[in-house]
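Why do we bother with a discrete structure alphabet at all? Because it lets us treat a fold like text: something you can write down, compare, and reason about line by line. To make this less abstract, here is a complete entry for Methionyl-tRNA formyltransferase. Read it the way you would read a sentence in a foreign language you are learning: slowly, and without expecting to understand everything at once.
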Amino acid sequence: MRVVMFGYQTWGHRTLQALLDSEHDVALVVTHPKSDHAYEKIWSDSVADLAEEHGVPVLIRNRPDDDELFERLKEADPDIIVANNWRTWIPPRIFDLPRHGTLNVHDSLLPKYAGFSPLIWALINGEPEVGVTAHMMNDELDAGDIVRQEAVPVGPTDTATDLFHKTVDLIAPVTTGALDLIAAGQTEFTQQDRSQASFFHKRSIEDSRIDWTWPAEDLERLVRAQSEPYPSTYTFHKGKRLEVLAAVVSQGRYGGTPGRIFYREGDGVVIVAGADARTGGNHGLAITRVRTEDGRELAATEYFSSMGGYLTTHP
């Protein structure tokens, strides 16, 4: 088929590479300009550079809503548009333009985790698996019929970075597998169960702030979800920002006020956690590694030279 590709960052780059390696003909690529947003500088392989290396025309747009772009798309005469990690709304006159419509590739197991940062949100929420879905685009974001979907399990120590590497390898087989079905003439696909749908917003630095009233199990997943190269989780100690780089759920149960720097356990220092810690002992969060405001990385047992005091949500 003749394909136009909309995409951005490494997700779009992997999608374009899969298309270039396939029997399909890539007629045009549309991508976003480079961004200084903290999360958009991560996994930032250039779609534009890859397209240009292979002689594919490139258009740079924040939004696909101008007449010049629409005319270029009509000239490209695509059988299908393939989109992955396109960050703004694609209007119906564009997604309905190709003979076979538009195939969107999304890094979640739709209908759950539509929208943004699905791997991070899924890890924070304790999902047992994550994956990639190729679906037909319609008027509602990430809501169209599913053409192909593949999942991978979430391991007990997986970070968001681990899950990125697991799922990014699914992009090529999911994309080309879905295109093969469409090229073979299949038109009926799996409708999404909209009662199971969820839609999540972009991550920001505020979302990495530790709230010590959360249960330790949730905080441990938050730390793993905000693994390098994502901005780390953070708290405040004596008014200064302290990043939490690694932590585990404590073996023992500890009661008191959430945020209390309480006890050395193994290689970590246990912080009291959970809104109900005052009335019953909870597992705490045993921090094992931190980074200070001046960039020093230390073992928590080295940083916390004595017990007592509090970690706080704000300075």
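What the structure line is telling us, in plain words: The longest helix spans residues 9-21. DSSP finds nine helices and 16 strands in the chain.
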